[in-house]
Fold this sequence. Notes:
The chain is α/β, with parallel strands linked by helices. It has helices at 36-44, 86-102, 121-132, 149-164, 184-195; strands spanning 6-12, 25-30, 62-67, 71-75, 106-114, 137-142, 173-175.
Amino acid sequence: MEIKNPRFLKSSQKLSELPPDDKPEYAFVGRSNVGKSSLINRLCNRKQLAKTSGTPGKTQLINHFLIDDTWYIVDLPGYGYAQVSKKERRVFQSMITEFVVERESLMCVMVLIDSRIKPQKIDLEFIEFLGVNEVPFVIVFTKTDKPKKTELAANIELFKNTMLETWEELPPMFQTSAVKGTGKEKLLGYIDEVNKLF
Ligand code: GDP
């Protein structure tokens, strides 16, 4: 599948502002700076559809992109070192939690993981939260052009093994690079298949 007509639809500050849940949605989420905006732009063949943020954790809104008039990419605020007050962070966190758990049209959460580094507690905790709430998700490793091949393989292996300490089965996993375009076809192919289940 190729995306032909991506467009920014709206930013929602509250769940009551969300667009109607009448199309399949895929939420992209990960630590600030994981490469989320770059990946969304690469998937959509656009340079600046999603804003690559200089300030980590600045985008504290739920952004909807309407893709080819049939499905949505949802850009969720990055978790991690958001430069906002604790109170603000709690409000956003509860909003994201509610969105992910309650949203009927959310087909899958794309959990972005930086392939350059060892498994991070905050990522594993978020994955655990998805599991407990039975939210479907896949793992998307980002920036795979960066580490050496052996290092990449070792990081992914370690991530899998860490997950297998608490999970019986592993979710689908994708290796991507926004710089090289790696993994784009497979990820969009997956979305194309899941769209049929809506
Ligand atoms: P976000 O905060 O998760 O939206 O991350 P961005 O998309 O803004 O990317 C954060 C930084 O990582 C930027 O400096 C990007 O240029 C860089 N980056 C993003 N994706 C890749 C990638 O696939 N490969 C490499 N080498 N760098 C990347």
